[in-house]
Amino acid sequence: MTNVDDLSRMVTGAEFREAMSRIASAVHVVTTDGPAGRFGITVSAMASISDAPPTLLACLNRKSPINEAVTKNGVFCVNALSGEAAAIADTFAGRGEAETMEARFAIGDWLTLQTGAPVLADALAAFDCRVVDVAEASTHSVFFGEVVGLMIAPPNSALVYANRSYRSV
């Protein structure tokens, strides 16, 4: 049983991040392109919302340049990464030598569907979305996207992140 005095103690950000590191999460690259430019970032905070109409959400840190770009472009694509795509995940997470967006998009083969947002050709699935709503939550914006285009690859392993490392499942 929890002591009431224990409830007054605040959970620190470091404790929360450590606990979250124990949870296996699928790895995605969220991309956008349009008047505000082409951007991409690695995320695990994505979820399906509904299939009528097909809608999902992606959480983006407000300090990240992609946040403003998605807001202005009004579109984004969630690229679900295969188990072999750890290098792409690291690149779009800002690890490695590809410092500019142009250099990041030079890695991998990219195409577009309906919105013009970049689609990774060998993604397990790509969800091409137009922004239908945005909610602000703490340090992040939650972008709700109606899926207007879809690419589905043949079954393959998926890239997940758990215990601070990638795994293929």
Automatic annotation (TrEMBL):
InterPro entries registered for this protein in UniProt:
Flavin_Rdtase-like_dom, NADH-dep_flavin_reductase, Split_barrel_FMN-bd
Q: Which UniProt keywords apply?
A: Monooxygenase, Oxidoreductase
Keyword RNA-binding attached: no
Report the residue ranges that make up the Flavin reductase like domain in this protein: 20-168
The UniProt entry, under SMART domains, shows:
Flavin_Reduct
GO BP: pyrimidine nucleobase catabolic process
Ranges annotated as spanning the membrane: none
- MF GO annotations: FMN binding; monooxygenase activity; riboflavin reductase (NADPH) activity
Name the PANTHER family on file. FLAVIN REDUCTASE (PTHR30466), FMN REDUCTASE (NADH) RUTF (PTHR30466:SF1)
**Name under which the protein is recorded:** 4-hydroxyphenylacetate 3-monooxygenase
